[in-house]
């Protein structure tokens, strides 16, 4: 609910207050919430670690793929000191492919068939 409302700081405080139970912290919804908090705090190393360490359900893939790509785009923009264009984003996607944990292996084709 906190995640859907966009209240990421409260979500972070809630996650911090959870008891030290391994099964609880390994639950997919908790890992997804931790990934959201890491992204919004700019802690991309933690985000990547979380996304690469657990095989997420297919219904969560789109949201987590979006976080993965946005984080890499933001890092690249910070390094270059300017916004990325379409080619820059393509290069980032090629350099940092989606991990198998949040991707079913289906390639996305951006080519159009000429008739």
Automatic annotation (TrEMBL):
The keyword Thylakoid does not apply. Keywords: DNA-binding, Homeobox, Nucleus. One of its GO terms (molecular function) is RNA polymerase II cis-regulatory region sequence-specific DNA binding. PANTHER family: HOMEOBOX PROTEIN SIX, HOMEOBOX PROTEIN SIX2. Pfam families: SIX1_SD (PF16878). It comes from the Eukaryota. This is Jg20786 protein. GO terms for cellular component: nucleus; transcription regulator complex. Residues 1-100 form the Homeobox protein SIX1 N-terminal SD domain.
């Amino acid at each position: 609910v906190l995640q859907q409302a966009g209240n990421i700081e409260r979500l972070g405080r809630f996650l911090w207050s959870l008891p030290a139970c391994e099964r609880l912290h390994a639950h997919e919804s908790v890992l997804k919430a931790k990934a959201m908090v890491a992204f919004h705090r700019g802690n991309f190393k933690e985000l990547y670690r979380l996304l690469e360490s657990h095989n997420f359900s297919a219904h969560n893939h789109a949201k987590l793929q979006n976080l993965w790509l946005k984080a890499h785009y933001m890092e690249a923009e910070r390094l270059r000191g300017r916004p990325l264009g379409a080619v820059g984003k393509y290069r980032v996607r090629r350099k940092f492919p989606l991990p198998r944990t949040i991707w079913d292996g289906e390639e996305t084709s951006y080519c159009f068939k000429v008739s």
